[in-house]
């Protein structure tokens, strides 16, 4: 998979290193000469250019990319890069970094963003996830379809503990994608029984989150 990363700072280089280890083809783009540190990520391609300029993106052959990551420290730049990647080059997946939480509402499909990653929101979500049992925690927002990646740890007294996945009437517009059980990561099967302490990851429409939380809560049968 070919991935272009706009922004070769610490965040962009870190992402590049991870993706290179997983066998992907990486192009790092930055307009600051001081950011071009080929020795830090020697296996990546490097391009000294302004990612907000069409001529630069033409040179980067963005139409060949499967994913574009807008990872600069400037939200305005990340929005412009996302919009150009999606509308001018038809990049299938665009991921954008949100630096200022006040700007998060802008990072949606109108600006070409498929996935918006806000570090403050993600950090707070991970803190909540670490201390919350039985509460729905929003981990990540997907722009298309107004869907979120959410997590809930099934409490010991949950009504659905012991119920098979295939026997649960899940709300519309929700999908159970992963069960984390101890050190194991399970792909849900309709024959799998839910267990207390399971971390359940869903992709769910925001409008269904409350319904999903009620379904998985201790209160379900007695509500």
Automatic annotation (TrEMBL):
SUPFAM superfamilies: NAD(P)-binding Rossmann-fold domains, TrkA C-terminal domain-like
InterPro entries assigned: K_uptake_TrkA, NAD(P)-bd_dom_sf, RCK_C, RCK_C_sf, RCK_N, Trk_Ktr_HKT_K-transport
Domain of life: Bacteria
Keywords in alphabetical order: Ion transport, NAD, Potassium, Potassium transport, Transport
Gene3D superfamilies in UniProt: NAD(P)-binding Rossmann-like Domain, Regulator of K+ conductance, C-terminal domain
Domain (RCK N-terminal) ranges: 1-117
RCK C-terminal domain segment(s): 137-218
Identification of the protein by name: Trk system potassium uptake protein TrkA
Organism of derivation: Streptomyces kronopolitis
Source species taxonomy: Bacteria, Bacillati, Actinomycetota, Actinomycetes, Kitasatosporales
């Amino acid at each position: 998979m070919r991935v272009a990363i706009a922004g070769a700072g610490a965040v962009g280089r870190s992402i590049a290193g991870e993706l290179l280890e997983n066998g992907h083809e990486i192009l790092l783009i930055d307009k600051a000469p001081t950011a071009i540190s080929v020795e830090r990520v020697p296996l990546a391609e490097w391009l000294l250019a302004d990612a907000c300029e069409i001529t630069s993106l033409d040179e980067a052959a963005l139409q060949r990319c499967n994913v574009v990551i807008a990872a600069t420290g400037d939200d305005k730049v990340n929005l412009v890069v996302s919009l150009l990647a999606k509308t001018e080059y038809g990049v299938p997946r665009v991921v954008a970094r949100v630096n200022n939480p006040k700007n998060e509402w802008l990072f949606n499909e109108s600006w070409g963003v498929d996935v918006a990653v806000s570090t403050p929101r993600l950090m707070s979500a991970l803190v909540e996830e670490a201390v919350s049992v039985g509460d729905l925690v929003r981990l990540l927002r997907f722009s298309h379809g107004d869907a979120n990646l959410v997590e809930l740890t099934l409490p010991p007294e949950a009504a659905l503990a012991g119920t098979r996945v295939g026997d649960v009437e899940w709300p519309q517009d929700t999908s159970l994608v992963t069960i984390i059980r101890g050190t194991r990561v399970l792909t849900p099967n309709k024959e799998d029984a839910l267990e207390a302490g399971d971390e359940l990851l869903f992709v769910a429409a925001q409008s269904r989150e409350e319904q999903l939380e009620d379904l998985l809560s201790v209160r379900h049968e007695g509500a």
